[in-house]
């Protein structure tokens, strides 16, 4: 199998030509002539989320705007009696409009913020995700900052460095690694799913990424790297800047504010930088001659856009790789089911280290079973048994120790102390949680509860059912007096810690909030394994494996990692063997049997019950439909129904097309809108 792959993601036919949507034959088009203007018809995509307006409208380009209203520029036009913003999608000499064309009113900026490659990508994504192109444009183009734009235009052109093809070096640790690097340096478009070894082993992430970037630069091409958070982007950009002394590495993130974000965007658009690291929206960054697109830890939910059309950064980069002939690297310490699906389709190569090397580089992982816990006596049934306390004490003699807790807070769930009935809010019925001072509040409406009475037995005492990170830190501080305890999490007063020094201390963190320890953690304790791996959610096992692995790689190579809390045996065994690709392959086979994504294409429909039933019935003749059902929702959200529409991979384009047409018909009839998400990560 070649690294460039064969079958897989292909470019769908672009949507949205006026002739197609209005069903006007091509022969009815007429030529438009304006003195002194070449291609005087501007086909404009309006900035509107209304489905039946997701098409281009023809406007006349006046002579005074002929040079400014280029394809990709932002313009103001008259539509429906009001002035609207839009983007020139293309210029033409003909129109299918039968009357007099309205003129473009003004050009916001003559800078083409949507180059041709970006417009093709947006067309392809809208077709694949049954989405609206204007929603994708808002993701792709940051808000204009006129002062920054004027300053960037006045800067002198930058002379970019010339690079030589690098030697494979650390990529030799991975099967197919040298071939991937060589093909990339030769100007090819290799695609690979890369399971990186832990940082303490050979083939560390930063070194491998730096070599891959240099290989793309050797062919005078650009590089795009997408990570989950701004902190990760800043850290990786600093690392690459150190390895690429003569190259400007740009960070593109919405958290940096309008001016800084637009400046980074313009550097790429104007060709003054060709290496960018950013968060999920950076997947659309206008990199000139893109040679390599990388997404790190693509299983992280923060890479999934939660606004319409709900597209994952992995999907954006995969389509972009096909459209622009660029290399693609789906990278991480683990392997997602989606990435494994592309590997098994032959669309990308499997860049995996040999099993012996993986076991050698991985930390020592322990998953105590019933015999080991029974040997501890009464403490074996405790949440943190005595063998875990010995692990912590042993690690603290040398340096910091990490404790991962799945849930934040003090007591995220409480119940009646007498009958064990879950405590519910008297106002909205939401679950109650407890603070450190034992005050209770509702997790849904946030109302304080005061005196509480059980509706089943009349009891007034509460007990903790689930223990959070704050309570865990408090308990461990009492058990290990004199040991500093640090808690890291988004809900803590000090937020997420980025790093800690090598002095002995307990670091209690929620998944994704683990700080990096200088020299690595001397021990890692993973608590409440069933809370992550035994959830009744699609991909719960893969997510648990990813979170445990991301904590384990922070340990020193000789450190011990212990997993407790009755985890799912299949997931824990994959973690124990450090076999992430094998687990992803088995999970993919299970999903294929159940007709679930990514083995099948699927669309989730949410909305009022009557509307969901109507749309599901409309699609049931050609596709598999499950539901509608009424999933449990928080009271702040309107009650909705949910249906799932499924199709084989070979009919994925048909499914998206049918959804697009149905949404446009509903929009024309002004029916109540529904939410459609194609290939969702959460089904029910």
UniProtKB/TrEMBL annotation:
Keywords tagged on the record: ATP-binding, DNA replication, DNA-binding, Hydrolase, Metal-binding, Nucleotide-binding, Primosome, Zinc
GO terms classed as biological process: DNA recombination; DNA replication initiation; DNA replication, synthesis of primer; double-strand break repair
One GO MF term: hydrolase activity
InterPro entries: P-loop_NTPase, PriA, PriA_3primeBD, PriA_3primeBD_sf
Entry keyword ATP-binding: yes
Cofactors required: Zn(2+)
Record flagged with keyword Nucleotide-binding: yes
Positions of Zn(2+) 1 binding: 416, 419, 454, 457
Cellular component per GO, a single term: primosome complex
Assembly and interaction partners: Component of the replication restart primosome.
Function of the molecule: Initiates the restart of stalled replication forks, which reloads the replicative helicase on sites other than the origin of replication. Recognizes and binds to abandoned replication forks and remodels them to uncover a helicase loading site. Promotes assembly of the primosome at these replication forks.
Protein name according to UniProt: Probable replication restart protein PriA
Natural source organism: Actinomyces slackii
Lineage summary: Bacteria, Bacillati, Actinomycetota, Actinomycetes, Actinomycetales
UniProt gene name: priA_1
